[in-house]
Design goal:
The chain is mainly alpha-helical. The chain has three helices and no strands.
């Protein structure tokens, strides 16, 4: 004599619960994938476009242009000393990395 065959039946409520959990998990996975894609495009290696330093000629033309539009610089303007500029450069290099 053989043993009776046991079959399990999934109730409709359990089936809906499983489908809802599956849909929620798939939605979360999709959101993570989209977020990763957006982060890669925003912070990826091609997102940073280093700027080229302008030439001395360009800077002097800019200075003349600004002076023509707004007048010459006042004599009481304070200029940063060489030591201050070096400290600023070291600070920026320490925060963002040196020139490549």
């Amino acid at each position: 004599m053989s043993a009776p065959l046991v079959t399990s039946r999934v109730s409709a409520g359990a089936h809906r619960h499983r489908m809802r959990n599956t849909a929620a998990a798939a939605s979360i996975a999709a959101l993570i994938a989209v977020g990763g894609y957006a982060a890669t495009n925003t912070f990826g290696p091609d997102a940073y476009d280093p700027q080229v330093a302008p030439s001395d000629r360009t800077m002097s033309e800019l200075q003349r242009s600004v002076a023509a539009q707004y007048g010459p610089a006042h004599s009481d303007a304070v200029s940063a000393g060489e030591r201050v500029l070096q400290e600023l450069q070291r600070s920026v290099a320490g925060q963002y990395g040196g020139a490549r």
